[in-house]
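protien #1 (seq + structre)
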Amino acid sequence: SWDVGIIDGLSGWTSSVDDVPADTIARRFRYDVALVSALKDLEEDIMEGLRERSLDDSTCTSGFTVVVKESCDGMGDVSEKHGSGPAVPEKAVRFSFTIMSISIRADGEEDAVTIFQEQKPNSELSCRPLCLMFVDESDHETLTAILGPVVAERKAMLESRLILSVGGLLRSFRFFFRGTGYDEKMVREMEGLEASGSTYVCTLCDSTRAE
């Protein structure tokens, strides 16, 4: 099991980590660092969204809600037929995320207002890689060992808020994660037979089959 606790502050932490089994190669960013980078890239869009909806800072004290779509899929055969180095699986898996929407609830209002919506949720341009690993996607044990810390970091972020300077002011962000981009075979591998029919209808939105 992995116990992360609430990740408090980014100073003094490396932005990428190596905590993977010795018999494979994986490289990943810390989840909170990657989300901060993504939000800073969207800073202009966030400010523009606030201006378009005539929301000023005094009416938005509750903070922003960010919906993140997670994706994890095998990349197929990536073998190199030359060069030296450790013998690693000749298949790769990529774990990535996309910021789908950012919304805010103004004081006194019941409904949240969406200030950013990703127009191309399945585009490579909006998809941000978090972890790249040389592993066969059917190797459940290795996959779990690599992605375990990622899941622990995600859980820690669900239970905390991120304070980030956007537009010159410190603002609060809460994250909600949707695993709509998981490959069907991988969902079965990770969750067992009850996931043989995906929880979600498609990879474009987070509507579930139950709904």
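ok now protien #2
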Amino acid sequence: MSKNKQFVRFDNVDKSYDGKVLVVKGLNLDIQEGEFVTMLGPSGSGKTTCLMMLAGFETPTHGEIYLDNNVISNIPPHKRGIGMVFQNYALFPHMTVYENLAFPLRVR
């Protein structure tokens, strides 16, 4: 049994943009506190959509997302306390990789 507690949980999460096609279907995912997770899949498989839902920039069509055992599915991004880095790490080309990654953490 793990000593770490469940920190992020996707509970039967679906996402559809048009009400017909599910871009995320029945996602059940538990991430333990301190666990390092990589999402790997082809283009269009829902990786970014899942991260956008976790960050609060998208809402699930069905299911719930939990952070530290609290439902966050309908909490706005600025109240979640989650930092993010854009997919293009060089958001600010004049900065180093480290500076680009550190910037949102310092601003927060």
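The chain has a mean pLDDT of 87.
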